[in-house]
Structures
1.
Amino acid sequence: MEAYRELYRRAEENPEAFWSEQATNEIHWFEKWNHPFEWNPPFVKWFVGGKTNAAYNCLDRHLATRGDKAAIIFEGEPGDQRVITYRELHRLVCRFTNVLKARGCQPGDRAMIYMPMVPEAVVAMLACARLGVTHSVVFGGFSAEALKARIHDLDARIVLTADGGWRRGKEVRLKDAVDEAVKDCPGVKDVIVYQRTAQPLFMTEGRDHWWHDLDLGVSDECPAEQLDSEHPLFVLYTSGTTGKPKGILHTTGGYLTYVTSTMKWVFDLKEDDVYWCTADIGWVTGHSYLVYGPLSAGATCMIYEGSPDYPAWDRWWDVIARHKVSILYTSPTAIRALIKQGEELPNSHDLSSLRLLGSVGEPINPAAWEWYHRVIGKDRCPIVDTWWQTETGGIMIAPMPGAIPLKPGSGTLPMPGILTEVVDFEGKPRGHQRRGFPHHQAPWPGMIRTIWGDPERFQQQYFSRMPGVYFTGDAARCDEDGYLWILGRVDDVMNVSGHRLSTMEVESALVSHPAVAEAAVVGKPHEITGQAICCFVTLKQGNWDHHQLGQDLRKWVAHEIGAFARPDEIRFTEALPKTRSGKIMRRLLREIVTSHTVSGDVTTLEDLGVVNKLATQHDED
Ligand code: PRX
């Protein structure tokens, strides 16, 4: 604890010196920076004037000391396995960077990545980084529509994909979705397809190319571009409070410094660790703690392609035992789903290689924490509950294992350099144990730089409550030891299985259906996924079969956004509760789905009858 306090104090007293030291110790620079940071709220630049390259830091600098060390241990869902050393990963990335160059890609271009969880997804990201092409990974569970919207927003010139991937023994076809998306994207010149499932598919002459064909004849040599510290590394889309997802921009030098430092602090990384982060590369956890953080820190990363229940619910325990995984980083949703299968399955595997457990994405409830600690960690592995966001780039609040005593359900204390305070609406500090909003007062190297193409929304969304201070959108309380307890979102953002989804996004998908007049969406407590999507829908005139329409609307939302956004419940209603000014009162709807009763102030309601009817109505579907 003393060591943590000392580190924290140094960072607070002199952030310039602290972060300069981190950047110097953790990152290779082709040219050193002139200033540690320039802060013109809300805009920040880190390590200004410095030149570096993320792929160089993840690969080349390890070759002398870790060339033969496994960078990736891969297991496909069908059981196929590959061990890829740092030297081999470097070779694959150099070759694919040469492929990108041969297709005419240049630093500053944008590439979409829509791939299954195979090592080539990592190769694709690092090849983009090596050349200075800004990548945007879209989770394979997103639909063609969602992919198209992102391609347009970024004006991407190339799409890197695969025929499909394996999930629960079935092929998840990705290239078909790319075809549907790209037909309306004239800016996309090339689609490169990695062959994973080898099922028949259609290739468009001139536009589509097999990865293995382009790989023929390219060189193994490819020097990394010397990029500006603020060169855009990636844009990752996440839900905000409107229907349109936000493209969160992260740049190179600061991001890499932050994820490398936090990787070491939080996971207390040792040279012989086998580290497994179960997140998909399509989410920020996959970017920061499956690819950039661990590879920059020289770790061995486990990657598993498929589902935890295939062929049976002990697949993860089997993977841990066979590959001697020592660090497991996963989500409370996954833990809760695994708890349901009982203790016998984990108990029948040798989990003694584990030494540290991590949790991310949503609050972990005490019962899940206790099970994770006792059944998986055998009461000897600390649990690091890590709070952060797509926008923060890396972990902000988490215990440093061994140093900070744990309290189940709390992320404990902020990372060094992260000045967090729980404040009220006016920005005044709240006393201990009182609910408020966590704010981050000083810039940190991993923070969001802007929303792609929309600096006003960036300013408005995160910095309008208190000038110069980053607003997280969460509520929290701080206890007498200074520990932070995250209480969930305060905006219209749901957290379903640790994935962020805005109520407005689902609403706009619903109202684009010809039968729907109006829709209001709220998150409803769910024992496994934390929250489930519950939709209140009013229909246009017509004779509707509610049961059928309920099914159709679920499918519709999955088509518009992606399968993971399929609503849990559709409730049909004659009207929605609104204020006199016409605003839908989601708070009331939330109460209805949580408790089936409504309390509090409803005097601004247009028609109280609507609420009472909704509260007693059962799910129509
Ligand atoms: O509400 C918080 C919740 O997830 C949100 C961020 O979502 P996203 O950008 O998708 O990133 C998820 C992975 C970092 C936060 O605003 N959240 C994330 N981690 C935790 C959490 N809530 C409680 N405890 C956590 N450990």
Note: The chain is about 30% helix and 25% strand.
2.
Amino acid sequence: MADNDTNRPDTTQKMSPSATISIGTRQAELPVRSGTIGPDVVDIRKLAQDLGVYSFDPGYGETASCQSSITYIDGDEGVLLHRGYPIDQLAMNASFPEVAYLLLYGELPNAQEYCDFRENLKEHALLHEQIRNFFNGFRRDAHPMAILCGTVGALSAFYHDGIDISNPASRDLSARRLIAKVPTIAAWAYKYSQGEPFVYPNDDYSFSENFLAMMFSRPNTRYRVNPVLARAMDRIFILHADHEQNASTSTVRLVGSTGANPFACIAAGIAALWGPAHGGANEAVLAMLEQIGKRENIPAFIEQVKNRESGVRLMGFGHRVYKNFDPRAKILQQTYHEVVSELKLAHDPMFDLAIELERIAVEDPYFIQRKLYPNVDFYSGLILRALGIPTSMFTVLFAVARTVGWVSQWREMIEEPGQRIGRPRQLYTGAARRDFRPFSNRN
Ligand code: CMC
């Protein structure tokens, strides 16, 4: 496997000059570590030992929680690299399973490795028949993210005793099972909501064709997979595959650091992804565009967003890391045009609304000063809508793709020498020690 390839860039940490921190008369020399590219980090692991203090960084905006060789983002330059390859090159030239292999094993597969990987994913795409029964426990109007989260968590009951996360082969098997089975669960969550029969995976299809077929085939009509649409689906999966230490990935790493079952770890990642500040934003963008309705309403909406007391945000805008354009948003804009032209769709007025909203926002000092630009979710919802995917499934598709990133990061975390449980500290602001009082002594 390419995992052991010695031609890979040497990412061994080089030691750089140290940083000196002083508190009063006490001083600590802290090592500064350099990665392959990107800012150095101050290694504060000895901070408490040397100075008796902890660092304070709510939201972890300035904290490197791990070292990783999977994904690199330069938020100021709008750069996203997977194992060194720019996202636009991958999105335009590779298939989703190729990118999955790259993220998992560090190198692009050769033809034989790719073929074996694809066949293996196909073998694992089937679900245990007992899993079907779980769906019946959900209300028909349950949100598909709830079904996905619950059912992926339930997979841990099917794959538990045989799993040994200290064994590389067992980790690899879990990773492949997850990448292969999550799309099937996702498509079945949709079928369940429609009251339609579940469609089993079909080995004749590519990964994305198979997903579309599981979503849209019916026993009474033959579903013809349109290659342009399958390619668009594949590209959307590639663009969402990994994004370094975001909230859901950090969740997977944290849960995984306890030694938990990998299927339970991914269920935790799905829960974290669901929030509107993270993967739920694609669904929220469409709701926002529907609420704005027409161009004339944009200025009033922008004023509402700028009024902090309104609590309204421009969904699909802003990013914790990108303070320039999000490179994924650009590729999605182009993909949208390909899909619309292939389907000969009447131009979606929502798209025009989105373009106009973006134009007004990027020229507005409020957004310029805060470096808020469209992110991946601003356009992904419009393409998914053109593909006939219902809004409630948007975040589910994000989860299908991100499963690849989660399992890659989970594996890397487990394989890190000296890996230990994630356990942040806190700044305690509650009551100091006090004695218990009986009811008779309380006001
Ligand atoms: N609309 C209006 N104001 C915003 C927005 C927005 N979308 N995003 C940030 N701001 C303002 C925020 O009010 C704050 O202003 P001030 O300095 O006056 O208090 C400033 O910009 C910094 O915001 P922040 O909340 O400190 O930034 P953050 O890095 O913590 O949040 C974010 C990042 C993505 C949660 C946020 O930009 C946001 O809520 N965006 C909308 C939701 C969204 O599109 N999420 C998808 C992210 S990309 C996909 C993914 O990774 O899941």
Note: Confidence is low (pLDDT under 50) at residues 1-12.
3.
Amino acid sequence: MTDTMQTDNITTAFERQAAGVIDRRCSFDLAARKRSLTRLADVIRKNEGAIVAAIAQDFGKCATETILTEILPVLQEISHARRHLKRWMRPKHATPTLASFGTSGKVRPEARGVCLIIAPWNYPFNLAFGPLVSCLAAGNAAIIKPSEMAPATSALVASLVAETFPPELVTVIEGAVDTSTALLALPFDHIFFTGSPAVGKIVMAAAAKSLASVTLELGGKSPTIIGPDANLKRAADWIAFGKFSNAGQTCIAPDHLFVHASIKDTFVAILRDRIAKAYGKSGTSPDLARVVNSHHADRIAGLLDDAIQKGAQVTLGGARDGTYIAPTLIETVTPQMDIDHEEIFGPVLPIMPFDDLGTVIAQINARPKPLSLYIFDKNKSRVDRIIAQTSSGHVGVNLTMLQFSHANLPFGGVNNSGIGNAHGHYGFRTFSNERAVLTNYFSPIFLFFPPYTARVKRILRLAKRVLG
Ligand code: NAD
């Protein structure tokens, strides 16, 4: 397709959706929204095999992991939204204040209009359709731009949407950076972007041109602390799952571990066994996904080589064959190594011993605020101290990853790891304009209107005493 044709297609898709906005505001009621969500759930259930096949083609992910981490979360999001939508849509009464005496305030969640959803490649199905659930629940139209790096899933997302929704409600525009750039030039009402912090900045700058609101679901390095009183076996179970499912290509995967020196050797031995049990001694089990492409496999191998050259020791794994990288543990990591400051986003896990928790907290605080912070420890006061003295989008205590599946928790980062929230009611609010409506019945505020006579000034002095 030529550039002009692509731009024309994009503009037509946008204008078609924008034209329907006023109409939809009046007619896209609870029943219509629920129907859309049901249609989405039906098409997903009917196409489970095709979804599994597309993701396997894109990066060798096995069926069980695809069902667990791509399909189920979207179906759960749909059924949660369907169950609670009536309550979410209801205008909320605002508790009156003294100054608003004689009025009645309501918050009406209203559709924002036409929303752009830009998805990444690492959970190419979940992160395209998950935001769509909140977007439709909130009564919007959507254009989805899936990632070009997962081409089979991108094509499938496009065909499922085309067979499920009229184009004025949901349209998929496939393509790479040029397509994203052309889309970002249009005056969307909201942009929901999932991807890297670097591209998040480009998206936010583009949104500024039309003052579109943005949600940025970004990434970064999620640290994990294992305290001296952790249940080491359980910690190894959760960390092996969190780090090596999707071959480590997960925004909330533990990026690196700080392990208390008193238990470090015991923990590493348990973790090695746990990884061998999950992925076989050589780490070649079909349950381990591949890295998405050779560019990213080279990037991860480059981080590992740089670390080894600068003195890191590989204590497990290290093998690479094309886009296969074995689950790898490395130790003796120093700040001079690239792996110490770049998001790893692959199956390589640095392990750093510590004696003093204060030093670990200072190290975390010296870096951009992470998306997730994980703590394994049975000592509650130590856990509370870490939470109180750091900042992150989420905290997982004695678990990894599960916070993504909790429909009543906000999912989002802070500063470098993101802006705004997804999931459940938080996702619905993200895609809604919370419109304040205040109706006057017998407000006495007119007593303060000019001319500011002595009587007004007397009432003002009285009001200051009561309100101030
Ligand atoms: P990416 O930022 O490279 O790409 C994301 C999307 O942006 C893709 O659709 C891509 O086509 C588009 N894009 C790329 N460059 C662009 C540009 N210059 N202008 C406009 N659009 C552009 O991210 P990725 O490599 O697909 O995903 C990995 C990153 O996403 C990691 O940093 C990861 O931590 C993060 N991530 C975050 C979450 C979350 O929920 N917070 C989830 C998954 C991934």
Note: The radius of gyration is 25 Å.
